[in-house]
Design goal:
The complex is a heterodimer. By secondary structure, chain A is mostly helical. Chain A is 68% helix and 4% strand. The longest helix of chain A is centred in the last third of the chain and has 32 residues. In chain B, the strands form four sheets. Chain B has a four-stranded mixed β-sheet. A three-stranded antiparallel β-sheet of chain B has the order 1-5-6, with no helix packed on it. A two-stranded antiparallel sheet of chain B has the order 3-4. The longest helix of chain B has 24 residues. Classes of the chains: A mainly alpha, B alpha+beta. At the A-B interface, helix 2, helix 4, helix 8 and helix 10 of A face helix 3, helix 7, helix 8 and helix 9 of B.
Chain lengths: 219, 298
């Protein structure tokens, strides 16, 4: 997508193209299913979730398959976005001024590019945890085929699956909070694809400059 | 399987207290296996299959008196065989009847996420309730004795029930009833412990087995199946009986500290985000976006 194609009429910029939006929602819906069924197996106090979602044996059967769909989504995201996600000097400065970001003092933040440092952390966190969840999940999928001499694989898998899932839950909560509540316009951008000029200027000045640059937005 | 007259003391994956806990006291039952008088006749295996209506399975001939490598989902009781060479060059044929050990602190139950799929009765028997099993196989990971076995067709896990249905009616387990040498005993844990210690002492003082002893591993809180061994210092030679069995530490970490840490972090995170919104609010307002800002006019 060239910068020129990203400029839309009426003061909007295309932030996510169709493929990006589709992949995001495939990953999002599969993640929510995995989260709900996973939480049901995590705590007896949440076991009722699995009962509501068609019964615990059904949840146990579907969880790994939906997990594969989620992993496909994560790998698609990797192929689309990994090249935009390496940490830069701006990102290091961004982490340094995180207290301003938390206090909504966005004008004091270093100019973020298409993705700010927090979003990059989310991306790499989900990518790494996704790989760990896949590897440990494969062991948990077929525990009966792990021979007794390799039982340490199962021992590692149970703790790895739970820990990396917990990390993704932390990332997920912040992601949903930022996207739905804190940054108005972000949620719409991953559905309709576009953001306002204001949004781009305020939260992603580096990216705004890249897209708009010398050209004038079409009105 | 049958819970007609048995009270429950532990329930897997259960939120809250155990219904009816402590309303009835029962003896902790125990099976005593004296490996020194076992002749490997496999009458107990046949009795187990007959009483529990298990099909005859394919056996494997490996030039020993052992008929298959390990127990199966539909074969809960197996005599393990080992030809052991002692330091003086003499041979011993070691037979060990292998089945669920009915741990006082069962790893299978600790690992199980399904409400009521594994229970421990007040008499100490650990029993799988297949109608509540979800087929996740976590019990296989929690067990230090390699006992729970998965049926790939029904996606359910099975193991020895200690003939719960017989014990609840005041009978001994089927394997005990069939033993022709009297190497199997069944009774209260205290009585069996005493009988086992007496036999071990006899072996030490009269039969030249100075290391004879009783196997009742404390790592899992003691077991509902105890062994008399000629050499209690080397339990491994009896078909790989673990020296110090315990619930895998990763399972303990997962079901203990990680669970509380994770729950605190998840609840704390939700509260934290909510309070953040109350304190700082959104970064931008949608209604502001709708009004054209100065300086953006073409």
């Amino acid at each position: 997508m060239s910068p020129h194609e990203q400029l839309l009429p009426h003061g909007h910029i295309l932030r996510y193209n169709f493929r990006e939006r589709l992949v995001h929602w495939i990953a999002a819906f599969s993640y929510v299913y995995l989260l709900l069924t996973g939480l049901a197996f995590w705590s007896p106090w949440l076991f009722w979730i699995a009962v509501i979602l068609g019964g615990a044996p059904v949840s146990r059967m579907l969880h790994p398959w939906i997990g594969l769909i989620f992993v496909v989504g994560v790998l698609q995201m990797y192929s689309m976005w990994a090249s935009q996600m390496p940490f830069t000097d701006v990102d290091r400065a961004w982490f340094q001024s995180m207290r301003h970001y938390i206090r909504n003092e966005d004008e004091k933040m270093p100019p973020a590019g298409r993705y700010n440092a927090g979003q990059k952390l989310l991306f790499w966190g989900f990518f790494l945890c996704g790989i760990l969840l896949l590897l440990s999940g494969l062991v948990l999928w077929f525990p009966e085929y792990i021979p007794w001499s390799l039982r340490w694989l199962r021992y590692i898998a149970v703790i790895l699956h739970a820990s990396s899932a917990l990390l993704t839950i932390g990332l997920f909560m912040i992601h949903v909070y930022m996207g739905v509540f804190a940054e108005r316009g972000a949620f719409g951008s991953v559905i309709r694809g576009d953001v306002s000029i204001d949004f781009a200027k305020r939260f992603h000045p580096g990216w705004y400059k890249e897209v708009v640059g010398s050209s004038t937005p079409r009105k | 399987m049958s819970q007609a007259t048995l009270r429950i003391q532990k329930i897997s994956g259960h939120a809250g207290t155990v219904p009816g806990e402590d309303t009835q006291r029962q003896f902790t039952v125990c099976k005593l296996i004296d490996t020194t008088t076992c002749i490997g006749c496999k009458a107990c295996e046949v009795a187990c299959m007959e009483w529990n209506d298990l099909p005859f399975g394919e056996t494997i001939f490996g030039n020993t008196y052992q008929t298959m490598p390990e127990t199966r989902w539909n074969y809960w009781n197996l005599i393990l065989f080992n030809e052991h060479e002692r330091e003086d060059g003499t041979l011993m044929w070691l037979m060990r009847k292998n089945q669920c050990m009915h741990c006082a602190e069962p790893g299978c139950l600790a690992a199980c996420p399904a409400d009521g799929a594994i229970v421990q009765y007040t008499n100490g028997i650990v029993d799988f309730q297949q109608d509540k099993c979800i087929g996740c196989g976590y019990c296989i990971t929690g067990c230090p004795f390699n006992i729970p076995k998965f049926n790939p067709e029904t996606k359910r896990v099975f193991k020895c029930t200690l003939c719960t249905d017989r014990v609840s009616e005041g009978l001994e387990p089927a394997c005990i009833k069939s033993c022709p040498t009297g190497c199997l005993h069944f009774g209260s844990k205290d009585d069996m412990k005493e009988l086992a210690e007496t036999r071990a002492k006899q072996l030490r003082t009269h039969y030249n087995f100075p290391n004879a002893g009783v196997y009742d591993p404390p790592g899992v809180g003691g077991t509902g199946v105890i062994y008399v061994l000629h050499d209690a210092t080397q339990p491994e030679i009896y078909g790989g009986l673990p020296r110090d069995p315990h619930i895998p530490w990763t399972v303990k970490l997962w079901k203990g500290p990680l669970k509380w840490l994770g729950n605190a972090a998840m609840i704390g995170g939700l509260i934290g985000l909510f309070v953040h919104y109350l304190r700082f609010g959104p970064k931008s307002r949608e209604d502001e976006d709708l009004v054209p800002q100065k300086g953006e006019q073409p």
